[in-house]
Structure formats: C-alpha cells, structure tokens
C-alpha cells in the first residue's frame, strides 16, 4: 500500500522520537543519573518503526534487552518509559524494573527482556494464543543475530512453523553478539537462511531503510494474519553505540562505525522525503523540534516523579 | 588463461521469497556451485582464477574442501580490493579483473548482479550463472559446464565468433546525463521509494522499456514475450505504456487496452493492461512521462525520478559480451577438444 505524506512523516517522527529518547538517556546515563544498565537502539530505528507501523491493536510484540525503540514504535508512553529508566514510581514497573523490563500489556507489548533470545518463545506463545482464540492478530518477535544461536530460536521457529502460527520473527542483525562479531559466532552471514530449515520463508532487507523494512513487514504481517504461517525477516543494521552504555567498543574499528553512520536511517529518510518533495527542510526541522520538546517533557516527568518507597519493595514480585 | 568469478552473496534472498514463491538460494549452495565451476575451469586449461572477496567469504569456503581426484591445482587468488557489502563491490571487482587480464568472467547472481558486473567488465565476456530471482540474462546451468564453457573461452580454445554474443543494453539518462544501465528491462513505477527493491505489484507499473523478452522468460520480460517476442539477437527493443488501474474500465470499453497475461515473478502470473507498444530502433531514446517515479533496472528499483527531472531511456547495441555455452561446448567437441587418442 502506498503511504501518503502524513504517514511518511509519521515514520520519520517515530524514528526521530526513538533517536531523541535514546540520546537523552545516553546523556543522563553518562551523568550518573540513571541506575543499572541501558542498551541503546541508536542506528536501528528503521527496524522497529517500519515493522510496528503495520500493526493493529490486537497484535503483540516481544522485545529484547535493546527494547526502547520497540516500545516507542508500539506507542508506549515516553513519560512512563523515562520514569522507569530513572527508577521512579511513575514508570511502567514503578521504577523497579528499569530499562530491560519495560512492558505494557495494554499495548500488546510483552516486554523488553534481559535474557538473550527469551522473547522468541513468548512471541510464539502469543501467536498460539491469537490463533487459538481466533483473534486475527499477529505476534512480532524482535531478536538479535546472536539470539539465533540459542535453543529458544530453533524451538520457537519449529513450533511456530508446525503449528502455522501468525508470528513474524524480525531479526535485527547488527553484526555483534555483545562484543563478538557475527563472523566469530556463526558460520553463516544471512540468518534468513535458517528459515528454510523450519519450512518458512526467510528474506533479507536493508534494516537502515525504513521503507524497505515497512514493505517487507507489510507483506509478512498480511501473510501471517491471513493464516499463511510464520515468516523470518532479517534486517541488516548496526548499533552506533556500544552493546551497553559504557562499552569501550574495542572490538570494532572507527572505519566500520563511520561506514555504518553514513547509512544512518534518519538523515537518509529525511533527505529522501525532501528529494521527493514530500517534506520541506522546514517541516523536518519542525518535527525535530516537536520531538525534542516531547522528550524534554518526559525527562521533567521522570525527574519530578518520586523514587518508590520501601513499602514497594515486595509488591509486584509475586502474583497475588 | 585467466578467468574470474564474481558471486553475489545477497542474491536469492529478497522479498520475493515472501510475496511470490521465489527460490531460496542459500550461500552454501553457491559455495558448491563455485567448486564445480572451478573444477570446470581447471579442466578447460585455465591457469589462474581471480575471485571477488565478499562478506560470506566464498573464496575460502569454496577452497576448503577439495578431495580425492578433484584436487584443485590451478592458481586461485582473491582480487585485491576492499569490499563494502554493496553492489559497487561487483562493479569494482569486474573492472579490476579486466585490468588483471581476466579473459572470461563467471557471475553467480540474477540479472541485477549481471547489470552491475557489466558496468565494470568492459569487453571481458561474461558467463552468467543464475542464482537470483529474475533470470533472463543469467542462465540456469550446471556449474561444471559453466566452468568448462568459460574456460574454453578464457583459454581461446573456442574462437570468439563461435562462443560470444554481443548483447543490448538500455542507458538511463537523467537530466541529460547517463546515470545507469539495464541489460533486460527498465520499468517505470508509480512509486517514490526504492524500499525493498523488488517489483511485484504490477498496479504500479506505468512503462516498460526492454531489450528483449520471450514467452519462456520470467519477470517483466515475460510481458514482452507474451505481447511481441524479441530475442537477444534482434537489434530492436520495445517500449510499452501500461494503463493505470483507474483507466482500465474506460479504455477496455473502447477496446484500446490489451490485457497481457505473463509470469511476472516466480509463482506470480498477472494480467497487465498495456495501452500501447512500439518497437525501438538501435540508438532510439524514449521519454519517461510518468513523474515522479522510481525506475527498476533488471528487476530492482534503482533510480528515483523527481517531479521536475527529465528522464530518457536509450536502446544501445553495446551491452556486454556473453558466453553462449551450448555453442561453445559444441564447437569444442567439433574441434575434438574432448578426445584424447
């Protein structure tokens, strides 16, 4: 389906929101104002944005430790996200989970996840539930290149395939599992090749091109929703920052980083919008300014929110 | 006595595995294919083979496992170049191989891969082996035979007049400047983004310019083949104007639109409403009237044409030389090359 100008600008706005959110988190983390770990999505914005733009209310997504972008693309409140990352009571988990536990079941966002590859069986289960309950929904699972070496990947793809579940497995291949390059952790380069072993289509797309991701996800979601079974989409992308904030990234060269930064999905899409006369430079700048304000407000919201009291220490830990 | 191999590790993996029923061509199969090609080249007397480096590392993987009687004794080398996992790698490698004295280039990929190689290869002949999706230029061929045929060309055992064909090409002119080429077809799409590159939505096609097309082809060339077949030896090309969906009913009533049924992608057979078509003479240029648009070259969206741009497509007779593997092998047999008395 062709997107109109408004929808195109929405894609840009979404990517800009993720970028601004992440850069702000990086800034406050470096100042020591954010507890715990953060894994930033800077550079990978086109993947979450292009995929989630195809989803409907009844759909689910399962995320990763690098989950802020997925949550924002699914429509999670940036105020509550920022508060959670700051460890404040108004966060998604009352400030007790932090970056890697942001979840919003109302949005079908099954959560970020501190365990590599742990989202795969969650999404598969969600896909099973959607099919069993005839909800015409689709479950999306985001996961990294190294997660595709885990047993959960193979078990999940096998089960989703044999049960013909409406699951779209979205591999964000950023070339590294923590500090280990893909060349050192698997003897293939295209994770999409693994799809055929489970009897499902696997395709490779440019994960830094939001329109390429959008098109592939559109077709995959349509197919899964129509009962065509699971699909594996591999998005080739790159994280500009380290695995976690503070990672010295000694395992990669400046040359490599700069080559990928030249393919940054944001300026790439912005300039394409202008070339096609779908947006002016002024319109792009206006969006940037609006987003800056939204994220500044989220920081203010988080900073004003109190830290959880000691009474909260044991609440929300066990069911009932 | 030198040959070259350019294998595209990204071919056979695009969105057409999802929107159509295109073949999955994994890279390990390409490794096997390269091994068979190498053995064919060696049997034909080639002494040195240059291989393009790539992100999958076909070179080392292919050389990793030669056993028994199938040992590789000829020299193999990686082309000295930096690769960036983009299509320019293939163009650069082809140009470099031409400099290095390569006498025949074997490509593994689809028509898109060969388009890029042709931009760098100059007059070095190409033996195009299909591992892609749209395969009009490239041939579905057993690797051993591809290696043998390419080797017979590289070593000069079979004369060029028997073994080679000069193909046509399309030159894309944007605002008066030649910006790219296509070997088989240039398709004007009512689109604004390159996105996932492939073409599958025929509702977006507005114009087709092709060097050839036959009813047994797959892809856009199949439309040409169904309407007015043009083979690779013919000098002319063709320009088709496709009706937009809103126009169809109106003009069908007037009887001026032809519905052409064609296999536009693996597993996708569609009816295309063709408003008009005209043959093109060598050197003729046609204007792209639908703007803004995206132009797909040999099956892949490549060029964005803005609303104020001027774009023309020219038919030229100066496409790459390709190896006719059947004529090459037959000629070698006629010359007794395979007989040892």
From TrEMBL, chain A:
GO molecular function: pyruvate dehydrogenase (acetyl-transferring) activity
Catalysed reactions, as listed in the record: N(6)-[(R)-lipoyl]-L-lysyl-[protein] + pyruvate + H(+) = N(6)-[(R)-S(8)-acetyldihydrolipoyl]-L-lysyl-[protein] + CO2
Transmembrane regions listed in the UniProt entry: none
Extent of the signal sequence: none
Cofactors that this protein relies on: thiamine diphosphate
GO biological process, one term: pyruvate decarboxylation to acetyl-CoA
Domain Dehydrogenase E1 component: 13-308
Keywords, alphabetical: Oxidoreductase, Pyruvate, Thiamine pyrophosphate
SUPFAM superfamilies per UniProt: Thiamin diphosphate-binding fold (THDP-binding)
EC number: 1.2.4.1
Highest taxon of source: Bacteria
InterPro entries, per database record: DH_E1, PDH_E1_Alpha_Subunit, Pyrv_DH_E1_asu_subgrp-y, THDP-binding
Matches recorded under CDD domains: TPP_E1_PDC_ADC_BCADC (cd02000)
Description of how the protein assembles with itself and partners: Heterodimer of an alpha and a beta chain.
Summary of the function given for this chain in its UniProt record: The pyruvate dehydrogenase complex catalyzes the overall conversion of pyruvate to acetyl-CoA and CO(2).
Name of this chain's protein: Pyruvate dehydrogenase E1 component subunit alpha
Gene it is expressed from: pdhA
């Amino acid at each position: 389906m062709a997107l109109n100008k408004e929808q195109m600008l929405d894609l840009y706005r979404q990517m800009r929101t993720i970028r601004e959110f992440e850069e702000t988190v990086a800034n406050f983390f470096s100042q020591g104002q954010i507890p715990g770990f953060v894994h930033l999505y800077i550079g990978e914005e086109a993947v979450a944005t292009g995929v989630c733009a195809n989803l409907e209310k009844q759909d689910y997504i399962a995320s990763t430790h690098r989950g802020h972008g997925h949550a924002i693309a699914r429509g999670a409140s940036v105020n509550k996200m920022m508060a959670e990352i700051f460890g404040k009571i108004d966060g998604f988990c009352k400030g007790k989970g932090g970056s890697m536990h942001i979840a919003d079941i109302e949005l079908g966002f099954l959560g970020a996840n501190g365990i590599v590859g742990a989202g795969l069986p969650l999404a598969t289960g969600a896909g099973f539930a959607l099919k069993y309950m005839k909800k015409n929904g689709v479950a999306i699972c985001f996961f990294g290149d190294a997660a595709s070496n885990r047993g959960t990947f193979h078990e999940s793809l096998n089960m989703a395939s044999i049960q013909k579940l409406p699951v779209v497995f979205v591999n964000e291949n950023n070339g590294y599992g923590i500090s280990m390059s893909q060349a050192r952790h698997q003897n293939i380069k295209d994770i999409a090749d693994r799809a055929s072993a489970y009897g499902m289509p696997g395709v490779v797309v440019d994960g830094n091109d939001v329109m390429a991701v959008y098109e592939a996800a559109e077709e995959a979601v349509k197919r899964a929703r129509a009962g065509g079974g699971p699909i594996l989409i591999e998005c080739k992308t790159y994280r500009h920052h380290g695995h976690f904030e503070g990672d010295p990234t000694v395992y990669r060269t400046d040359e490599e980083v700069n080559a990928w930064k030249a393919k940054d999905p944001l300026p790439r899409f912005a300039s394409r919008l202008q070339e096609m006369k779908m947006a002016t430079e002024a319109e792009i700048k206006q969006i940037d300014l609006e987003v800056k304000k939204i994220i500044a407000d989220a920081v203010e919201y988080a900073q004003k929110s109190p830290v959880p009291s000691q009474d909260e220490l044991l609440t929300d830990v066990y069911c009932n | 006595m030198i040959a070259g191999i350019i294998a595209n590790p990204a071919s056979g993996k695009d969105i057409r595995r999802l929107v159509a029923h295109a073949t999955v061509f994994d890279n390990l199969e390409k490794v096997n294919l390269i091994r068979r090609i190498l053995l064919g080249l060696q049997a034909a007397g080639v002494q040195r083979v240059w291989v393009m480096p790539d992100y999958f590392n076909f070179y080392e993987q292919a050389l990793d496992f030669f056993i028994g009687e199938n040992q590789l004794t000829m020299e193999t080398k990686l082309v000295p170049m930096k690769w960036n996992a983009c299509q320019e790698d293939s163009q650069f490698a082809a140009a470099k191989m031409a400099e290095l004295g390569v006498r025949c280039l074997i490509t593994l990929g689809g028509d898109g891969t060969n388009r890029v190689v042709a931009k760098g290869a100059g007059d070095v002949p190409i033996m195009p082996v299909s591992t892609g999706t749209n395969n009009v230029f490239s041939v579905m061929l057993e690797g051993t035979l591809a290696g043998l045929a390419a080797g017979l060309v590289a070593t000069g055992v079979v004369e060029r007049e028997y073994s080679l064909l000069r193909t046509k090409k399309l030159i894309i002119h944007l605002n008066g400047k030649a910006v790219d080429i296509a070997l088989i077809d240039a398709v004007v799409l009512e689109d604004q983004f390159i996105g996932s590159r492939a073409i599958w939505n025929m509702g977006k096609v507005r114009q087709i310019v092709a060097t050839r097309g036959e009813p047994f082809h797959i892809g856009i060339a199949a439309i040409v083949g169904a309407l007015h077949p043009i083979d690779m030896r013919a000098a002319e090309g063709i320009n088709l104007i496709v009706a937009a969906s809103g126009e169809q009913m109106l003009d069908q009533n007037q009887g001026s639109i032809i519905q052409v049924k064609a296999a536009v992608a693996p597993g996708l057979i569609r009816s295309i409403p063709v408003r008009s078509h005209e043959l093109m003479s060598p050197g003729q240029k046609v204007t792209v009237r639908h703007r803004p648009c995206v132009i797909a070259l040999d099956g892949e969206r490549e060029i964005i044409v803005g609303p104020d741009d001027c774009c023309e497509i020219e038919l030229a007779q100066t496409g790459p030389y390709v190896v006719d593997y059947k004529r090459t092998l037959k000629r070698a047999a006629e010359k007794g090359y395979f007989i040892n008395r």
